[in-house]
Design goal:
By secondary structure, the chain is mostly beta strands. The two termini are 12 Å apart. It has 2 domains: 78 residues, Chitinase A, domain 3 (Roll); 45 residues, Thrombin, subunit H (Beta Barrel). The longest helix has 7 residues. Helix content is 5%, strand content 42%. It contains 1 helix and 9 strands; from the N terminus they run E-E-E-H-E-E-E-E-E-E.
């Protein structure tokens, strides 16, 4: 049975969970297909790729990925304070907004609302979080 190596193209079903067991993403949702990816091309977070190495078709396992192998730690330099006057009137903590910059459009989270300003967080929504993935290898090319 062929074991997955760097450079292989694999199809994998996955379910991503937080420490509390709540699911944040899954390929098993109706209408979705297994993830198809070629390892070693930087298409996946490092911990996910490492978890697939040496698995074989039909094999399943659960992996735990620390933030430094996923979306990184929360970087406070990614917080920005903005005038509330340029933001939607119905602003609430926890809302996701779209902002644009030199790299294009990106999502920001409303972290805090002050009297005349709001603190926006441009970190990846999964930054700073330990992630768990249930993996099932469907195919190796």
């Amino acid at each position: 049975m062929k074991k997955i190596q760097d450079g292989d193209t694999v199809k994998v079903n996955y379910t991503g969970k937080f420490e509390d067991g709540s699911v944040f993403d899954s390929s098993l949702v109706e209408g979705r297909q297994p993830l198809t990816v070629t390892l070693g091309q930087g298409q996946l977070i490092p911990g996910f790729e490492k978890g697939l190495i040496d698995m074989a078709v039909g094999e399943t396992k659960t992996i735990e990925i620390q933030p430094n192998e996923a979306y990184g730690e929360v970087n406070e330099d990614m917080y920005q304070e903005v005038e509330k006057s340029v933001l939607p009137e119905d602003l609430q903590v926890g809302m996701m907004l779209q902002a644009s910059g030199p790299q294009g459009v990106f999502n920001v989270l409303v972290k805090e609302i002050k009297e005349t300003t709001a603190v926006l967080d441009a970190n990846h929504p999964l930054a700073g979080k330990k992630l768990f993935f249930d993996l099932e290898v469907v195919e190796v090319a």
